[in-house]
Amino acid sequence: MADQPARQRRAGRIILVDESGLSLLFRCGDPARPEAGTWWFPPGGAVEPGESAEDSARRELREETGLDAQDLGPIVLQRQIEYEFEGVHYSQEEAYFRVRCDHFDISDSGWTENERRVVQEHRWWSVNELRATTDTVYPEGLVAFLDGLEEPFERIPDEGYP
Questions:
Q1: What count of other Cβ atoms lies within 10 Å of the Cβ of residue 35?
Q2: CA 39 – CA 119 distance, rounded (Å)
Q3: Which of 14, 88, 103, 107 is the residue whose CA sits 20 to 30 A from 25?
Q4: What pLDDT does residue 66 have?
Protein backbone atom coordinates (compact mmCIF):
# COMPACT_ATOMS: atom_id res chain seq x y z
CA MET A 1 0.00 0.00 0.00
CA ALA A 2 3.04 2.28 -0.19
CA ASP A 3 1.67 3.88 -3.40
CA GLN A 4 -1.58 4.82 -1.65
CA PRO A 5 -1.66 7.95 0.54
CA ALA A 6 -2.20 7.20 4.21
CA ARG A 7 -5.68 7.77 5.62
CA GLN A 8 -5.31 10.18 8.55
CA ARG A 9 -6.91 8.96 11.74
CA ARG A 10 -7.00 9.98 15.39
CA ALA A 11 -7.70 7.52 18.20
CA GLY A 12 -8.37 7.61 21.92
CA ARG A 13 -7.21 4.61 23.94
CA ILE A 14 -7.40 3.48 27.57
CA ILE A 15 -4.72 1.76 29.59
CA LEU A 16 -7.03 0.01 32.04
CA VAL A 17 -5.36 -1.13 35.27
CA ASP A 18 -7.19 -3.08 37.97
CA GLU A 19 -6.55 -3.00 41.73
CA SER A 20 -3.91 -5.74 41.52
CA GLY A 21 -2.02 -4.09 38.64
CA LEU A 22 -3.42 -6.21 35.79
CA SER A 23 -4.04 -4.50 32.43
CA LEU A 24 -6.78 -5.41 29.98
CA LEU A 25 -5.69 -6.08 26.39
CA PHE A 26 -7.42 -7.40 23.28
CA ARG A 27 -5.83 -9.72 20.70
CA CYS A 28 -6.56 -8.90 17.08
CA GLY A 29 -5.44 -9.91 13.63
CA ASP A 30 -5.92 -8.51 10.13
CA PRO A 31 -8.24 -10.88 8.20
CA ALA A 32 -6.76 -9.53 4.95
CA ARG A 33 -3.22 -10.46 6.09
CA PRO A 34 -3.30 -13.56 8.29
CA GLU A 35 0.44 -13.97 7.67
CA ALA A 36 0.96 -10.76 9.70
CA GLY A 37 0.02 -12.65 12.86
CA THR A 38 -1.79 -11.15 15.82
CA TRP A 39 -1.11 -8.44 18.37
CA TRP A 40 -2.41 -7.24 21.73
CA PHE A 41 -3.64 -3.69 22.37
CA PRO A 42 -5.65 -1.67 24.92
CA PRO A 43 -9.31 -0.72 24.43
CA GLY A 44 -10.01 2.30 22.26
CA GLY A 45 -10.59 3.41 18.72
CA ALA A 46 -11.18 6.14 16.20
CA VAL A 47 -12.17 9.67 17.17
CA GLU A 48 -15.50 10.41 15.48
CA PRO A 49 -16.39 13.86 14.08
CA GLY A 50 -17.08 16.32 16.90
CA GLU A 51 -15.37 14.14 19.53
CA SER A 52 -12.24 14.85 21.52
CA ALA A 53 -9.71 12.07 22.10
CA GLU A 54 -11.08 11.82 25.66
CA ASP A 55 -14.69 11.53 24.43
CA SER A 56 -13.63 8.83 21.99
CA ALA A 57 -11.67 6.87 24.59
CA ARG A 58 -14.59 7.03 27.04
CA ARG A 59 -17.11 5.89 24.37
CA GLU A 60 -14.85 3.10 23.10
CA LEU A 61 -14.19 1.85 26.65
CA ARG A 62 -17.93 1.62 27.29
CA GLU A 63 -18.61 -0.08 23.92
CA GLU A 64 -15.70 -2.54 24.14
CA THR A 65 -15.83 -3.46 27.83
CA GLY A 66 -19.13 -2.23 29.32
CA LEU A 67 -17.22 0.00 31.77
CA ASP A 68 -18.49 3.58 32.05
CA ALA A 69 -15.60 5.82 33.17
CA GLN A 70 -16.36 9.51 33.55
CA ASP A 71 -13.04 11.14 34.45
CA LEU A 72 -10.14 9.83 32.40
CA GLY A 73 -7.62 12.35 33.68
CA PRO A 74 -4.84 13.69 31.46
CA ILE A 75 -3.29 12.06 28.42
CA VAL A 76 -0.49 9.83 29.75
CA LEU A 77 1.05 8.64 26.45
CA GLN A 78 0.92 9.77 22.84
CA ARG A 79 2.24 8.15 19.70
CA GLN A 80 2.07 8.48 15.93
CA ILE A 81 1.97 5.24 13.94
CA GLU A 82 1.51 4.05 10.39
CA TYR A 83 -0.02 0.68 9.68
CA GLU A 84 -2.06 -1.30 7.18
CA PHE A 85 -5.33 -2.94 8.10
CA GLU A 86 -7.70 -4.66 5.68
CA GLY A 87 -5.96 -3.11 2.70
CA VAL A 88 -6.04 0.48 3.98
CA HIS A 89 -2.87 2.39 4.90
CA TYR A 90 -3.39 4.53 8.04
CA SER A 91 -1.40 7.28 9.68
CA GLN A 92 -2.78 7.41 13.22
CA GLU A 93 -2.26 9.79 16.10
CA GLU A 94 -3.09 8.05 19.39
CA ALA A 95 -3.80 9.59 22.79
CA TYR A 96 -3.73 7.22 25.79
CA PHE A 97 -5.48 7.73 29.10
CA ARG A 98 -5.05 5.61 32.21
CA VAL A 99 -8.07 4.37 34.16
CA ARG A 100 -7.82 2.45 37.42
CA CYS A 101 -10.74 0.17 38.23
CA ASP A 102 -11.85 -2.89 40.13
CA HIS A 103 -11.32 -6.12 38.22
CA PHE A 104 -14.42 -7.04 36.17
CA ASP A 105 -15.60 -9.34 33.39
CA ILE A 106 -15.99 -7.39 30.18
CA SER A 107 -19.23 -7.16 28.24
CA ASP A 108 -19.02 -7.38 24.45
CA SER A 109 -22.64 -6.29 23.97
CA GLY A 110 -21.49 -2.96 22.48
CA TRP A 111 -19.08 -4.50 19.95
CA THR A 112 -19.42 -3.61 16.29
CA GLU A 113 -19.55 -6.28 13.58
CA ASN A 114 -15.95 -5.36 12.73
CA GLU A 115 -14.81 -5.88 16.35
CA ARG A 116 -16.58 -9.25 16.48
CA ARG A 117 -14.79 -10.23 13.28
CA VAL A 118 -11.24 -9.15 14.18
CA VAL A 119 -10.94 -9.41 17.99
CA GLN A 120 -9.90 -12.95 18.84
CA GLU A 121 -9.73 -12.75 22.63
CA HIS A 122 -9.13 -10.51 25.62
CA ARG A 123 -7.33 -11.00 28.90
CA TRP A 124 -5.93 -9.22 31.92
CA TRP A 125 -2.10 -9.20 31.91
CA SER A 126 0.36 -8.71 34.76
CA VAL A 127 3.47 -6.63 34.10
CA ASN A 128 5.58 -9.78 34.51
CA GLU A 129 3.48 -11.62 31.91
CA LEU A 130 3.84 -8.71 29.51
CA ARG A 131 7.57 -8.57 30.15
CA ALA A 132 7.91 -12.32 29.39
CA THR A 133 5.61 -12.64 26.37
CA THR A 134 6.92 -13.09 22.84
CA ASP A 135 3.57 -11.84 21.49
CA THR A 136 3.41 -8.41 19.90
CA VAL A 137 1.98 -5.82 22.32
CA TYR A 138 1.09 -2.21 21.54
CA PRO A 139 1.86 0.47 22.39
CA GLU A 140 5.56 -0.17 22.47
CA GLY A 141 6.83 0.78 25.90
CA LEU A 142 3.66 -0.33 27.68
CA VAL A 143 5.64 -2.43 30.18
CA ALA A 144 7.94 0.49 31.04
CA PHE A 145 4.90 2.72 31.52
CA LEU A 146 3.17 0.16 33.77
CA ASP A 147 6.40 -0.40 35.73
CA GLY A 148 6.38 3.31 36.62
CA LEU A 149 2.92 3.33 38.18
CA GLU A 150 3.42 4.15 41.84
CA GLU A 151 0.53 6.46 42.53
CA PRO A 152 -2.08 5.58 45.17
CA PHE A 153 -4.81 3.42 43.75
CA GLU A 154 -7.97 5.39 42.92
CA ARG A 155 -10.89 3.23 41.81
CA ILE A 156 -13.86 4.21 39.76
CA PRO A 157 -17.09 2.94 41.31
CA ASP A 158 -18.57 -0.45 40.37
CA GLU A 159 -21.72 1.12 38.96
CA GLY A 160 -21.64 1.00 35.19
CA TYR A 161 -20.45 -2.61 35.05
CA PRO A 162 -22.87 -4.85 33.20
A1: 6
A2: 10
A3: 88
A4: 96
